[in-house]
Amino acid sequence: MFKTIDLALQGGGSHGAFTWGVLERLLEAESIVIEGICGTSAGAMNATMVAYGMHIGGRQGAIQMLEKFWRKIAEQHRKSIFQPSWIDRLFGNGRLDYSWGYNFMDIFTAIFSPYQYNPINLNPLKDLLEELVDFEVLRKSKAIKLFVCATNVKTARAKVFHNEEMCAEAVMASACLPYLFKAVEINGEAYWDGGFMGNPPIFPLIDDTETEDIVLVQINPIEIDYIPKTAVEIRDRINTISFNATLMYEMRKIQFVQKLLEKGINTEGKLRNLNIHNIAPPKEMERLGVSSKYNATWSFLQKLRKLGRQTADQWLKENYDALGHRSTCDVRKVFL
Prior knowledge:
This protein is α/β, with parallel strands linked by helices. It is built from twelve helices and eight strands.
């Protein structure tokens, strides 16, 4: 018996390797069919690789595309300034708190903008995307409904790119950190990272797919078990709160609609029942912090990938039978 799901993928830099592991495990479950996939930032990268991989080679093609992408990211990272110091490597937690490169850029980008220090707008990510993905083919693909979210700089609204308008620039826009890269311009509009207005947005999956089961793959923890006290801890917590804010707001709206349906209220039949599921980051990721999102060493990516596989495997054991029948995420408890 097949189980059809939609996937909503959060962004979070190299922590997207956790989502890589989750996706790999879900793709290995041949009874699970993916109708739609929506992603932001690193989630958009993963979503694009899955959608294109499914088109050219089915499940195995998607698995191979994910690995190709993250291997290329690790190769590019070798030339990056964001390298762990010997102290960071000694702790072995993936953070870059003692990296001279990370700390230099943290100060440098607070003073100078990419319009000043990168006037020709070099971005190796574009070359990588165009090397791996034939976007002309992807725009015509019907294998998976793909949605990529970016933030319109001028209007402060989320922009969701669909299959038929997908291009390397759209995926880059979804991951455009304004301190590091110039805004990505598409059809006269400028875009920054989609995480500011939808990390990830759920509404494209509700509006443009028929599937009732939406599986959210989170990277940024909502709850933590400590009070941030150091400057680094405070910045880390501000980051996770900021990049979860729009998701929590949207989940509140979904909960409101579900309550209306439970009461038998369905305005003109426009509302439909949803089963919400959540694959949340494990405790090991709670204290990784913002700096580790810039660490794309292969060993760290592999560590996160393994965590993702383990988490997805456990989630499937506990929740597979509920797919198609009921929610496994208590939206009120987790998001309200």
